[in-house]
Amino acid sequence: MFLRNIASQNLPTRSLSFIGNVQQYRQISRNSVGSWSSSEVPTFSPKKALVLTKLSRYEFEKLRHKNVSEAQLEDILRKRGSDYNMLLYHHTLHKNCEAMVKNILEEKNIETKVVTRFDYNEGNINWADVIFTAGGDGTFLLGASKIHDPTKTIIGFNSDPTRSEGYLCLPKKYSNNIKNAIDKLLQGKFRWLFRRRIRVTLIGDKIYDVPVELHDQQLNQLENRFLEINEDRDETPKLEESVKNKRIIPVKALNEVFIGEALSARVSYYELAVDGSERTKVKSSGLCVSTGTGSTSWTFNINKLPHQSVSDLMKLIQEETRLPIDYKDQRLIDRITAKFNDNLIFGPEVSLMGYTIRDSLSDGTLPVPGERKPRGFAKQLNIRSRCFDASLVIDGGLSYSFNDGTVAILDIVDEDALRTIVLNEP
């Protein structure tokens, strides 16, 4: 495993940074494919398949306006500046993809059931041998959120590649050639990919409060796409106080965990410990912690350098050093920008988290000696909240209260890995 590889090479994980140790880090990560993928021969012979289909924008609007006719809905959308015909067009594209996935699976004698997020529950997941998603990355994240069995495979089809990249799904070309993708799966022409996920343990009071499903706020009705919450059930177990105040959140983060004040204009105040180090007091705009999968997403956009910044830095270096640097050379600027930004990304099977202290604040204009670097890698993070009205948000969808005194422990555990696939290419 990756962590053992690091230990064997005497590399302290706290010293790893996004840029300074990239070559060494990538050499290690090439061997960090996990305990399953190196030994398992890929076979794919499911008897039952569950297809989780996304809620299209057209369906979303239909749910928001349940009591209006189609003509009235069209009028409402047009007055808002939305293109009714385009919504209907992309809805049709999505439904065609959904139907094709179902039909091809059934042609292969695989019993298939199609569900929306409202019926994506433990019973249906346990019924299926494999989960397919028809949608984009959001649908894939939803599908992954309820899978706790490392032997359960999830595979995504991007149902509308004209509108989204679908990085977590199969390549776009398979959206129009679903049969080819399924044939490859059944022929074993793929390899397993075990995407690491972040496990969150909360310690403190009110940690069993029902989390806020952020998508509910848009739909204005109970959706609970991440959790099955029964209002009649008391979620707090009847345990001793020392145990009751510690809870492992049932949803693992595939992309990232974000911690910060709910009001973005307010400074987030917390204490951070990395891999057992002493806690450091931090003031910032929040803390973003990503997996390798999530390193191409939000955390990438937080840390990436634009061409303008690279050009400005090159100009300053030239002025200070008098070195012959052509800070107006666009090709040189492009290469340096791409190299810096590429080094922010690490592999989805790497058993580390990349953390970023967003907009770190200090009392003076210069960093304090010994002040924690704004980004790095870790095996474990320990965060104590000193916030007023903060949230801990998993994959941009599920928000837990994280206020003063509450502690969050973030780990990556190999058993939490999500089983996905990569198709073999010629």
UniProtKB/TrEMBL annotation:
Q: Name one GO biological process term.
A: NADP+ biosynthetic process
Q: Where in the cell is it found?
A: Mitochondrion
Query: Which catalysed reactions does the entry list for this protein?
Result: NAD(+) + ATP = ADP + NADP(+) + H(+)
Provide the top EC class.
transferase
Alphabetically ordered keywords of this record: ATP-binding, Kinase, Mitochondrion, NAD, NADP, Nucleotide-binding, Transferase
What GO molecular function annotations does the UniProt record carry, in alphabetical order?
Answer: ATP binding; NAD+ kinase activity; protein homodimerization activity
**What InterPro entries is this protein classified in?**
ATP-NAD_kinase_N (IPR017438), ATP-NAD_kinase_PpnK-typ_C (IPR017437), NAD/diacylglycerol_kinase_sf (IPR016064), NADK2_mit (IPR012355)
Q: What is this protein called?
A: NAD kinase 2, mitochondrial
Which source organism? Daphnia galeata
> Taxonomic lineage per UniProt?
Eukaryota, Metazoa, Ecdysozoa, Arthropoda, Crustacea
